[in-house]
Amino acid sequence: MATLAELQEKRGGEITRRRILEAARARFSIASYEDVKLREIAAEVGVDVALVHRAFGSKEQLFSAVLSTSKEAESQSTLDAGRLSEDFTDGFFSASQNETLQIVVRSLTNPQAREVLRARSLTEFIGPVAAALEGASTIERATLFNACLVGMAIFREVLGAQALQDANSAKTRPLIARVLAACLADEPSAAPEPKKEGPAKAPRRTAPKKAPVAKTPSKKRVPTKSRRR
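The structure corresponding to this sequence follows.
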């Protein structure tokens, strides 16, 4: 049985780990993967950087843990398929913005971070959405849904597209919700294909009948009498 001191130490370690994750999440959402430093995270939490290494191993592993414990990931189990497009559209324009989208967009250019994102894309982003859907091709529909979200986030944050800024949310919000809903829509039942008909044959052309030619009566030859010698 663990002693009180050991329980307190374990409890303290869990609290410290949670604080490190929160500080790291905030850093990764506002800075690129390269610009996030473990020493800065440790200083913000008030611990030695060695404790960060001991708790998470490396910056890459800390980044992976941040993706797994993001606020959005924590709420994936309660996804409502009927409200997915509206909820994610609201999150796109919310004051706090979707933290996970921010982290993804700011880390895509780094090879190490990209490998983590690739490995986590199914379990953290695509899988939970697909699990909330019904019908066929749930993985494909969830993939399109996430692809649209990330693409719009890149246009908003990296390219500064005015149509996607908060000032234009009244116009673009219903359009975004419609696009996301289209990605999630189930495939309609396939209708039987109409029977293909060959090209219509041209009507056979018949030559016009020639008018009968009137026959002229032939003249009868009158036999001539032979002269007698």
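The two ends are 168 Å apart (CA to CA).
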